[in-house]
Amino acid sequence: MKTRMSQLVVALIFVTLFAVNAKATKHDVKASSHENTEVALEFENWMMDENVWSTGTAHYAEVTEPGLELESWMTIPLVWDFQTKDLALEEWMTDEKVWDAESPITIETETEKDLTMEYWMVNRDIWN
Fold first, then answer.
1. Contact 104, 98 (CB under 8 A)
2. Mean pLDDT, rounded, for 13-30
3. What is the DSSP string of the chain?
4. How far is CA 11 from the centre of its chain?
5. How far apart are CA 12 and CA 20, in angstroms?
6. Residues ≥6 apart with Cβ < 8 Å to 99
7. What is the pLDDT of residues 68-97, one digit of tens each?
8. Which of 2, 35, 58, 103 stands 20 to 30 A from 25 (CA)?
């Protein structure tokens, strides 16, 4: 009995809240209310100062990169002596047609057979 009463009270509260919201009035919103209005711009002293605009010298610092130097690892033969026995020239690497920009290249592409509908794809018993 208590749960039935508490459910009834909760239901009445919800109905009351929805009834109050139902009486809300509609407010018309005009497009002009969405526009941003800017404050009037004002001139400052430095904007009108002739000395600021008439000077031809720019106050930029010239940035230079440090000189390039050889480091020890760059001259050690062991760093550059790596094994190349797994590398091999392939036919396309030496084909002049591949590297000639003016000749059209025809590349054979792999094709797949057409897909077919199988029984399990359309069986209603499987999908329902």
1. no
2. 67
3. -HHHHHHHHHHHHHHHHHHHHHTPPP----GGGGS--PPPP---HHHH-HHHHH------PPP-PPPP---GGGS-HHHH----TT----HHHH-HHHH-SSS---------PPP---HHHH-HHHH-
4. 47
5. 12
6. none
7. 888 888 888 887 776 666 777 888 888 887
8. 35
